[in-house]
Design goal:
Blueprint: H1 3-9, E1 12-14, E2 19-23, E3 28-33, E4 36-39, H2 42-48, H3 57-67, H4 74-87, E5 91-93
Antiparallel strand pairs: 1-5, 2-3, 3-4
């Protein structure tokens, strides 16, 4: 399996201790963790809501591509965000 294909088969999920929720007072999704809270923009929230521990990265990308057609760099942008979220310790890739 090539790198991109293997990557697409991986399953992103929030790390233990992290919880995603809508925060009415913030008018946005937030990522809660023991030390604090991260206010998410709409794009980050759209990606992280799909990081459910069951959906592969490839399926996640396909779902967002169907929801936001015509976005030329969508797959690349999602992969970059997933990598950043993993580096920051928000998610794991199984």
């Amino acid at each position: 399996m090539s790198g991109a294909a293997a990557d697409a088969a991986r399953i992103p999920c929030l790390r233990p201790g992290y919880r995603l929720q809508w925060e009415g007072a913030q008018h946005s999704h937030v990522l809660l963790y023991p030390e604090g809270m991260i206010r998410l923009n709409d794009s980050a929230a759209a990606i992280l809501t799909r990081c459910d521990g069951q959906t592969s990265l490839g399926t996640l990308i396909d779902a967002l591509a169907a929801e936001y057609p015509g976005e030329a760099t969508l797959a690349e942008d999602i992969r970059e965000f997933i990598d950043l979220a993993r580096q920051r310790g928000w998610i794991e890739l199984r």
